[in-house]
Amino acid sequence: MAKHQFQTEVSQILHLMIHSLYSNKEIFVRELVSNSSDALDKLNMLVLTDEAYKGVNFAPRIDIVIDKEGKTLSISDTGIGMNEADLVENLGTIAKSGTKAFLEKLSGDQKKDSKLIGQFGVGFYASFMVADKVEVISRKAGEEQAYKWSSMAGSEYDLEPAERDSHGTTIIMHLKDDESEFLEAHRIDTIVKKYSNHIPFPIYMDKEEWVAPAEGEEKGHNEIVNKQINKANALWTISKSEISDEEYKDFYSSIAHDSSEPLAWMHNKAEGALEYTTLFYVPSKAPMDLYRVDYQSGIKLYINRVFITDDEKELMPTYLRFLRGVIDSADLPLNVSREILQSNRVMAKIKNASVKKVLGELAKIAENDTEKYDAFYKEFGNVLKEGLYSDMGNRERILELLKLNTLNSAEPVMFSKFVESVDAEKKEIYYISAKMSLQMLKNSPALERFKAKGIDVLVLNEEIDTIVFPMVTEYNDYKFVNVTDAKLEESEEEKKEHEEKAKGLESFVGQLQNALGENVSKVETTFDLTESAVCLKVDKEDQGYMMAQMMKQFGQMGGDFPAPKPILQINPNHELIKKLSDSADMNLIDDAAHVLLDQAKLYEGETLADTAGFIARLNRIMAKAL
Fold first, then answer.
1. How would residue 111 be classed by pLDDT, with cut points 50, 70 and 90?
2. If you average pLDDT over residues 580-586, what whole number do you get?
3. Rounded to 5 degrees, what are φ and ψ at 311?
4. What is the spatial distance between Cα 130 and Cα 175, in angstroms, rounded to a whole number?
5. Cα separation, 223 vs 618, whole angstroms
6. What are residue 537's DSSP bridge partners?
7. Are strands 146-151 and 156-162 parallel, antiparallel or unpaired?
8. Is the Cβ–Cβ distance between 457 and 508 less than 8 Å?
């Protein structure tokens, strides 16, 4: 017998299972049965597609055995099984890098935390919620030697050779004294029907049944019968009209390892030149790894009900990575490889049709159930926006699903509703985008001329907005125009007046330019401001700006690239500018130039690099004014 140390993260999870998560202990059955189903799925695929496994007997079943005297509950399967290395890798360590995120996500709320079990591949360890000792006896298909893994949930586990008649895995839980409820057949039967009824393999258990008296007998008797306790039919293959809402929810629970109810589901069967079935669920809460590069795909691919993979991110686009569910096709070869899958025309057609179906269903929810759609958008709205730059073919559909803040509305509005307020002749959708608080962005000087004319503007203050919307140029016949690039109409009289005022300030503009030097690209007058004295404008001819935009599109902000120099725009009609332009005090103008630039930066949500200098200049200006 060899002793091994648990990985640190495993020890932490075991401690949580034993000491913290008590609110929903029954899910350990769901997790272990789900693992057994996965093991059977994998063997089924190998037997059908891999020459090395052609001779392996595939007789799929899961057995649950209760031993009241020994106080043990066992769950056994005839799946792929594990050898010594597999046991160490799968039970002694957690390879998934998101485990740290799982641990950090735990809040101390037992009911909430227990729903997280299984989402990060930690389902097996749920057995320690009810057992003070767990033994795993496993033999890998195609190998003769079996191994026994055992642990008392401390910092170590034992691993030794063992005997097992055939391939597969048996998990034996030595239940704690106060967990005797899980030694009752009716309790286990109820849990299986609740969470695992549609596991596509039969689950057997001994049950006591009443046998009526035979002819000539006075009374009947109880008899122990080993019988199947789940339906064992693939839910997605059943007609929608024959499936209850509860069955849909239970199936979601088994495939998503989530005790929360799904927000919505979409069940579709395509027939004709291409035959396939899809069943997609939208979770009510975002998966913990939603924003991780190594997120776990939530879609399982089957071919004629034979499991192929659940680890292929190409099955659906990344902006729909929150989906959970199944794709089952009759038109793909069983031995399809990952490389072939990614370039397969059939799979591409299924993917494209599925995306349109999902987006269409989301649009129906948005139209018919505002409360449900708000709940969806709160969790997944920003992820959906990623599709604006990754899925050109569905860009307009995605835009119509967005709820965005606008200048004239207190609450976010559907984009399709916003478009109704856009000038139907000019067809320009104005937007402002920056990563800052919504209120701060709404008060941007760049919006003053729009406020004055009553024109509504999209106000986009999320980081993802600053990345994706510069690449969105049009919607139907409408053009997207950044507020800084918008040209609002003005009369000939206004144009003439502006030209005269700008000409009269040329000398003052030159003084500001000299005072600020390399801090700005240039200083210029603007008549777009109605309340503010100054604002910043991006110099789009600046190479630094072009490089920053390119890096932003790749999601790489910051780095060693110098920030582009801004253009400082001044408002000739502002009282402060008028008085400064009449001053002959060059020291005052020098201080004011820097204070005005810093003021404009603050409007943009920037942090001042030289706050001491800003305060000193401001103090000198105020001292002169007193």
1. very low
2. 91
3. -130, 30
4. 6
5. 93
6. 567
7. antiparallel
8. no
DSSP state of 454: T
Q: How far is CA 215 from CA 81, 208, 212, 269, 573, in A?
A: 47, 21, 9, 51, 109
CA distance 305 to 327: 9
CA geometry: angle at 101 spanning 36 and 313, to 5°?
A: 60
pLDDT of residue 16: 67
pLDDT for residue 210: 78
- Amino acid, single-letter form, for residue 80: I
pLDDT value of position 114 = 47
Cα(280)–Cα(326) distance, integer angstroms: 6
pLDDT for residue 172 is more than 50: yes
H helices of 78-220, in order, are 84-87, 99-105, 110-114, 185-195
Q: Are strands 534-538 and 299-303 parallel, antiparallel or unpaired?
A: unpaired
Q: What is the pLDDT of residues 472-489, one digit of tens each?
A: 999 999 999 999 889 888
Determine the Cα–Cα distance for residues 424 and 454; give it in Å rounded to an integer: 15
Q: CA 66, CA 73: separation in Å to the nearest integer? A: 5
Strands 203-211 and 62-67: parallel
Spatial contact of 392 and 474, defined as CB atoms under 8 Å apart: no
Average per-residue pLDDT for the chain: 87
- Average pLDDT estimate for 292-313: 87
Q: From residue 390, how far is each of 68, 214, 295, 383, 393 by CA, in Å?
A: 57, 70, 17, 11, 9
Q: What would the DSSP string read from start to end of 301-356? A: EEETTEEEES--GGGS-GGGTT-EEEEEESSS-TT--HHHHHH-HHHHHHHHHHHH
Residue 281 to residue 329: CA distance in whole angstroms: 18
- What is the per-residue pLDDT for 97? 41
Of 189, 151, 143, 192, give the one whose Cα is nearest residue 168. Answer: 143
**Each residue of 387-419: pLDDT tens digit?**
999 999 999 999 999 999 999 999 999 999 999
Cβ atoms of residues 207 and 173 within 8 Å: no
Could you tell me which residues come within 8 angstroms of residue 252 by beta carbon, excluding any fewer than 6 positions away? 258, 261, 262, 265, 281, 324
* Tokens found for residue 50: 């891999």
> Residue 6: pLDDT band by 50, 70, 90 thresholds?
confident
**What is the percent of the chain with per-residue pLDDT over 90, rounded to a whole number?**
61
DSSP single-letter state for residue 406: B
Q: For CA atoms 333, 337, 340, 343, give the dihedral sign.
A: positive
| Residue range 300-308: mean pLDDT, rounded | 87
Pairing relationship of beta strands 2-5 and 156-162 according to DSSP bridges: antiparallel
Selected residue with higher pLDDT from 158 and 552: 158
Length of the chain: 626
d(CA 268, CA 273): 15
Give the whole-angstrom CA distance, residue 555 versus residue 615. 35
